[in-house]
Amino acid sequence: MNIFNGIIKNGKFVMDDENIIVTPSEEDLLKLKNYEGKKVFLGIRL
After folding, report:
1. What distance in Å separates the CA atoms of residue 43 and residue 2, rounded to the nearest whole number?
2. How far apart are CA 9 and CA 43, in angstroms?
3. Which domain holds residue 14?
4. Mean pLDDT by 10 residues, the chain (46 residues)
5. In total, how many domains does the chain have?
6. Sequence-separated (6 or more) residues with CB below 8 Å from residue 44
């Protein structure tokens, strides 16, 4: 699993260096709204 550090910004995951920006699904967006502006981790399983 690859783990990326980032922040939730304007409803999207933005990696610290802004090389990766992920727009969550509508369902996930509702779950993430309380994390707006907070540091988070994104894990991607290959």
Report:
1. 6
2. 17
3. 2-44
4. 96 95 94 95 94
5. 1
6. 1, 2, 4
